[in-house]
Amino acid sequence: MELFSKNYDTLNEEIKKLLEEFNHHHNYQETSYIFLLLYTMIFFNNYNEKEKINYTHKLSKNYHHFQNKLESQNKRQKYFLKDFINNKEFYQKFLYLFLDNEKEIYMPADDYLYDDNFLTETDMYEIAIDFLKNYHPTAINLFNELISNKRLYLLDKDNQYDCQGISIYNFLYKSYFVFIANDNDINSLISIMHELGHIIDDINIPINTPNKEIYDYHFKSTYIEVISSMYEKEFIDFLIKENINPKVASLYLTNYYQTMYDDFECLNLLSYLPNSLLQNEKYKTKDKFKITEALLENPDIYFEQSEFLNPNILDLKTHLNYGYGKFFATYFSSLRKESYSDFQSQFSKFLTLRLKNLDSDIFKNLGTTMDLAISQVESEINQSSTKIKIKSKQN
Ligand SMILES: [Zn+2]
Question: What are residue 263's phi and psi, to 5 degrees?
Fold first, then answer.
């Protein structure tokens, strides 16, 4: 059984076809989208360094106006900042409620990560199908197609992109490619499930959705990591339940929650920065001292100065997307177990709401409250096999 394709014909053909699109009539937004798509596909293709440079050079030389757009990316950041600044009160209230409870975190020793956890591609395939059968039967076809149509590729072993996986969805042809850093272990499979979630997310966008809304969802939405994180979390839960590398899986679950809290802690600090420092991401270029000073002026925030990270690792978009991604994924997966009808009703509302940008009525619009959702997530964490325990102050 071969999970990853070593044949790049499908990808090469699509790159050629997309290059042709520049000769057709597309509006500015579509053309810049095609440019971005091509840029990414060329970047992750298995071209050698020289071919890669040739391609990207050709692309940027002929379409330099899009190149500028791609490089600045300021528009996107500005959008996120605007949304964040406009909704500061909502974020602060949420973060206050969620972060204020006492947590005991005990990270277990990870020696056994180095045990022999080798999985063949056949093992990986069988575990994945077992999971999908139980949790997402409608995704089985897509997963099989991904493999049989040779659209699942390996990332370069020495990939400098520092990522576990990436999925590329082409809205023009409704086609997709997935790249994974494969170490033949559970982590690689977790990454595949996460990326599969992204593809499912894209495929389920209603057919009559205007293109602009689809682009905005991809580049500007707060909820872009929710469904992918749901696939990831439910897969880890499945591994623990089915006793498949349970110790390692439980460590990944601890890590999943830990990174969610880390993202929210960072978001919380950002939410207390004056707007003048948030504008154009000025906080990234200030030194630690300046940021600490600005934060200390605010009596509403308490933080450990010694634990404060360098401002340049703060990134609003990342903390928002992954923090909320993991939060809502935990919420929905917990609700699914507890009350399937509540899950169905709220999740179907989410599928529509996710295409809109953050609105501070999100909990109300789902049919719940902020407090209820937070309690649900906390009780899910407390019931799990991880070493994170939350003592709620409210009760
Ligand atoms: Zn993702």
Answer: -60, -40
